[in-house]
TrEMBL record:
Descriptive protein name: RNA pseudouridine synthase
Protein's organism: Pseudoroseomonas ludipueritiae
Keyword Isomerase in record: yes
Keyword entries, A-Z: Isomerase
Family: Belongs to the pseudouridine synthase RluA family.
Amino acid sequence: MAARILLRTDAVLVLDKPAGLPVHAGPRGGASLEDWLPQLAFGKKRVPQPAHRLDTDTAGCLVLGRTQPALAELGALFAAGRAEKTYWAVVKGAGPAEAQGRIDLPLRKTSSAARGWRIEPHPEGQPATTLWRVLGRGPGLCWLELRPRTGRTHQLRVHCATLGFPILGDPFYGTPAPGGLHLLARAIKLPLLPPVMAKAPVPAAMRPAFAACGWQAEA
């Protein structure tokens, strides 16, 4: 896991979390990022702790605080919406007709015995806003940049699916596909002193779909 560190300061770590690894251990057990946190202390008395959420299925930038004051400051930034998060996604279909836009769609959690819990659009749900921009298109696919302005659970997945272009490989709101969920927490920018900026590479499993939309591997 230490090889997946994108940025390390005295107060902050930014980790390239692999898709499929939950951040926290669940009630059923199994591997989680918590198993590796002691190895990421690098001499600190406290092990680093995640400052925000990142879905199990989502790969990319995860911010951790290395000290209690740093964790508190990071938590305040994320709570206030001051952390600038940029995601990349490949969605199914032609995607939106416009080049860019904004999604304002309140979301709430629902559950049933048959389907378990899910997130659904609902006028009485919590406000949720996503800015999007088309970066490329391919046969039956579209590459989007997504910038959430709120941090609701499954926000990007539900917003895209509701507008008719589910994220490729989404088992909750679309259909599974080779390479898994094609959603990458591509970059993070934090207004700290000095500012923190990090960028995650496109995982190997996602590269064919991104390449089909015009993405080219970085040197």
